[in-house]
């Protein structure tokens, strides 16, 4: 029994308190700390039962540790009491400093609430300060150690070994112990949080290292080219890192690649496409220069790798070799626009090239001096009226806006005058329509194989007889068309004669010499005509020339 007048009792209690507080700091985990708190009450403070109720994140309290009775420990450990019920307990009874004592005369109202309880049996007290089996004593634990802090738990005790309610010294000891226990639990929680944070950090670092290693392997061993380049600033596009596939594709070592930016490697015609792709990300097809001076077609796909704080940092560039695909595309385009036998542009390509030189608006001639005076003084001239009001122009046509608009940079195609004696030196686009004479008989007599060989040789002779910028096309069958720009009428006649003379010499096919002749009709293209109209005009002139030559042969015979 505690006797306040016996100092040695208080000294012994103080030693025990010191020991159990020291034990609190040796626990390694939060669970160990909670159990040490409960054991310390039983071993050092003289109570037979002790329970530690810990506040959960949701505010309710769970029985986290129990000491003094294994049966009671198995029954109520892990059970939960609501915060509302605990707040009711901590506001009832008598306040012993920071402790809360609820005598049995008041505590009976708590028998049916949801707080886990263990009922002990015993005789009725004979003395006023004797402990009743239904008495309750709680020691709240606060995060800051004082009652003004956040509640982290409650120590509940029962059955003092001396059978009496604790005196002033016992109360002080339990209050001091609860203060130290709160500190120990807070430290244990902090250590547990730090350990979890360290474990989480280590896992994140391991995941980051694994991710970096995965990226490195994917980057280095990717079957297609990859590069990392700077984003923004004066060094925008400078290559920082390349993989082996890109080095092999461009025939340059990695150390040399780091000296360049993508703009140094791209074909001059593709620089605009590269700059747009670098600024906006996305995909583009362009040409990169190899070490040997050749260019290779690649598909370039940029991904902007950005930092939320600092903005874009660098470009991750994927480079795929599409040279073979581009070659096939060019071959298909060539097949679509060229004759499969002779390799010359076909009818569709001929019409496309001819249409590109023509617009729907006929070209107006220059105004006469009289028209110029009329336009200057009274605006009644035909030239002024035709342009200002849209009335008929000097050719008798209504000017219609073409695909280039009324005011454009299109150079109108004109035809030389028909009168040879009035040749004013005008140059135009001559369309020479060529039809082979005698080709059908060669086909019928020697077969299509010989006929094909003749067409191939005629195509070669026509191509050799024109300038580099001229077009020789096969219209179909034994018909060819030559487009020659910048010729006068006499020049076109001379060209037709030269080409006819080039076709006439014998053509040897499989040891056999065959001959074909050629009839040429010369048409002139000018704006306001369609491609079909131009070709029809040249075709008609060819037939006129063919009939004229036939009559000459008959008269000569």
Outline of this structure?
Helix content is 42%, strand content 22%.
Q: Please indicate the percent range of residues in DSSP E strands (runs of 2 or more).
A: 15-25%
Instruction: Provide the structure class.
Output: alpha+beta
E-strand count:
18
**Fraction of residues in helices?**
40-55%
- The stretches of 5 or more residues where confidence is low (pLDDT under 50) are 1-5, 364-408, 553-557
Biggest sheet layout: 7 strands, antiparallel
What's the end-to-end separation, in Å? 161 Å
Mean pLDDT across every amino acid position: 82
Quaternary state of this entry equals: single chain
Q: Which term fits the overall shape?
A: rod-shaped
Sheet with the most strands: spatial strand order: 3-2-1-7-6-5-4
Helices, by number, come to: 18
Radius of gyration: 53 Å
């Amino acid at each position: 029994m505690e006797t306040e007048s016996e100092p040695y009792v208080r000294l012994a209690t103080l030693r025990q308190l010191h020991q159990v507080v020291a034990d609190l700091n040796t626990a390694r985990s939060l669970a160990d700390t909670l159990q040490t708190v409960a054991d310390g009450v039983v071993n050092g403070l003289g109570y037979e039962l002790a329970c530690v109720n810990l506040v959960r994140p949701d505010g309710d309290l769970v029985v986290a540790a129990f000491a003094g009775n294994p049966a009671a420990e198995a029954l109520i450990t892990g059970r939960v009491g609501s915060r509302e019920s605990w707040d009711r307990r901590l506001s009832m009874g008598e306040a012993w400093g920071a402790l809360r004592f609820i005598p049995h005369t008041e505590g009976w109202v708590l028998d049916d609430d949801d707080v886990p309880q263990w009922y002990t049996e015993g005789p009725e007290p004979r003395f006023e300060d004797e402990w009743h089996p239904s008495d309750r004593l709680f020691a709240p634990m606060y995060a800051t150690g004082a009652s003004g802090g956040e509640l982290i738990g409650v120590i509940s005790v029962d059955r003092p070994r001396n059978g009496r309610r604790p005196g002033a010294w016992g109360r002080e000891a339990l209050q001091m112990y609860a203060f130290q226990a709160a500190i120990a639990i807070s430290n244990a929680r902090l250590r547990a949080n730090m350990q979890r944070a360290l474990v989480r950090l280590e896992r994140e670092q391991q995941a980051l290292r694994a991710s970096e290693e995965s990226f490195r392997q994917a980057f280095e061993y990717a079957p297609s080219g990859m590069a990392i380049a700077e984003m923004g600033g004066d060094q925008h596009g400078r290559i920082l890192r390349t993989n082996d596939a890109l080095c092999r594709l461009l025939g340059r070592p990695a150390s040399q690649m780091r000296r360049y930016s993508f703009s140094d490697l791209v074909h001059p015609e593709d620089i605009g496409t590269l700059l747009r792709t670098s600024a906006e990300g996305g995909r583009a097809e362009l040409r990169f220069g190899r070490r040997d001076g050749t260019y290779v077609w690649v598909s370039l796909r940029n991904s902007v790798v950005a930092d939320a704080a600092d903005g874009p940092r660098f470009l991750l560039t994927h480079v795929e070799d599409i040279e073979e695909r581009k070659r096939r595309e060019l071959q298909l385009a060539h097949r679509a626009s060229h004759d499969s036998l002779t390799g010359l542009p076909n009818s569709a390509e001929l019409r496309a090239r001819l249409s590109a030189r023509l617009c729907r608006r006929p070209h107006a001639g220059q105004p006469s001096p009289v028209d110029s005076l009329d336009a200057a003084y009274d605006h009644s001239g035909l030239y002024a009226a035709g342009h200002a009001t849209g009335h008929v122009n000097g050719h008798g046509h209504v000017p219609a806006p073409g695909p280039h608009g009324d005011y454009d940079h299109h150079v109108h195609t004109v035809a030389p005058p028909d009168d040879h004696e009035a040749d004013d030196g005008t140059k135009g686009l001559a369309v020479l329509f060529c039809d082979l004479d005698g080709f059908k008989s060669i086909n019928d007599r020697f077969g299509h194989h010989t006929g094909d060989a003749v067409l191939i040789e005629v195509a070669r002779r026509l191509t050799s007889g024109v300038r580099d910028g001229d077009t020789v096309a096969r219209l179909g069958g034994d018909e060819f068309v030559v487009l020659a720009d910048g010729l006068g009428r006499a020049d076109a006649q001379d060209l037709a004669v030269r080409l006819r003379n080039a076709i006439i010499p014998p053509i040897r096919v499989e040891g056999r010499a065959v001959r074909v002749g050629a009839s040429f009709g010369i048409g002139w293209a000018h704006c306001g005509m369609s491609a079909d109209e131009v070709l029809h005009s040249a075709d008609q002139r060819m037939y006129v020339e063919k009939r004229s030559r036939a009559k000459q042969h008959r008269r000569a015979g």
